[in-house]
Design goal:
The chain is an alpha/beta fold and about 190 residues long. The two termini are about 25 Å apart. It has one domain (about 10-190): Rossmann fold (3-Layer(aba) Sandwich). The chain contains nine helices and five strands. The protein is globular and about 45 Å long. The protein has a five-stranded parallel β-sheet, sandwiched between helices. It has helices at about 20-30, 45-55, 60, 65-85, 90-95, 110-120, 135-140, 155, 175-190, and strands at about 10-15, 35-40, 100-110, 125-130, 165-170.
């Protein structure tokens, strides 16, 4: 891609809602340091457009609260229509902010997201991670099944993806150091 720096490692995090993707991404960033690493979110350009178009609070849409959930289904439908025209449109927009050697993408949701990063940066730079948590644990974290959200492509497209470099079970808060160590080892692999 023109004018987009190529980081040495791109860590693609995937998982169901409330599995802990953002929590682990934030904790890993603290461990690696912001001089070396950064987090980008594919959903950020979607939410930015939605906030501008509807006059909504962008920081609330980017957060993890009920505000975002009110608009989630509409945002999914709108973004799916844009992806039909150009599957990499939101990945490309998110990548314009890359300026570190390690890039953590905290919200990979589709096979086309993985494809975009592999085609754009080369598979040798890409590390894919699936974060899993049981429905019971996700429910403790505030998840409730919603038809039209939890049963559509944005939640389910990577369910049968088999090429993960690492699969992590994020079930218990006392496992965080072990999960972060595994992620850090994956990032440091040559």
């Amino acid at each position: 891609m023109d004018n987009i720096p190529a980081p040495k490692v791109i860590l693609l995090l995937s998982g169901k809602r409330k599995c802990g993707k953002d929590f682990l991404a934030d904790a890993l960033l603290k461990r690696l340091g912001t001089d070396e690493a950064q987090i980008i979110r594919i959903s950020e350009p979607i939410k930015r457009h939605w906030a501008d178009w509807k006059g909504l609070n962008l920081s609330e849409l980017l957060g993890d609260g009920t505000y975002k959930e009110r608009y989630r289904k509409e945002m999914i439908e709108w973004s799916d229509a844009r992806r039909q025209e150009d599957y990499g449109v939101f990945c490309r927009a998110a990548c314009t902010t890359i300026d570190r050697g390690i890039c953590i993408v905290s919200d990979v949701r589709r096979k086309t997201d993985v494809r975009f990063f592999q085609e754009t940066y080369g598979p040798e730079r890409i590390r894919t991670v699936r974060i899993e948590a049981s429905e019971a644990v996700r429910a403790e974290r505030g998840w409730q099944f919603q038809s039209g959200i939890d049963d559509v492509q944005s939640e389910c497209d990577l369910d049968n993806y088999g090429a993960w470099d690492l699969v992590l079970a994020n079930e218990h808060s006392n496992d965080v150091d072990g999960l972060l160590a595994a992620l850090q080892r994956l990032v440091e692999q040559q």
